[in-house]
Amino acid sequence: MRLADFYSFVDHEFGKEHGPWLLHSHVLLEFGKTPVELLEDGVEPRDIWWALCREHDVPETRWCGPDE
Fold it and tell me: For residues 47 and 33, what is the distance between their CA atoms, to the nearest angstrom?
């Protein structure tokens, strides 16, 4: 997953205001860090996205991003 797609998926699923907050403030349980910290550590954006989806009960039908 490209980084641009990751940010687009987050904006679409969580909103332009709540999405950035999640990325900077929410500690993902399975990683013990925020998404931004994980990105800085080189973790694959897809893995971070899927962790966000699991923790926030996003239906699997939306894990591949918005239908465009």
Answer: 13
Q: Which two tokens stand for residue 22?
A: 């999640």
Domain boundaries, the chain: 3-59
Model confidence, pTM: 0.89
Q: Are 10 and 23 in contact (CB under 8 A)?
A: yes
In total, the chain counts a number of residues equal to 68
Give me the amino acid identity at 31: F
At 18-63, the pLDDT tens digits run: 999 999 999 999 999 999 999 999 999 999 999 999 999 999 888 8
Which residues face 44 on adjacent strands? none
From 46, 47, 53, select the one nearest 19 (Cα to Cα): 53
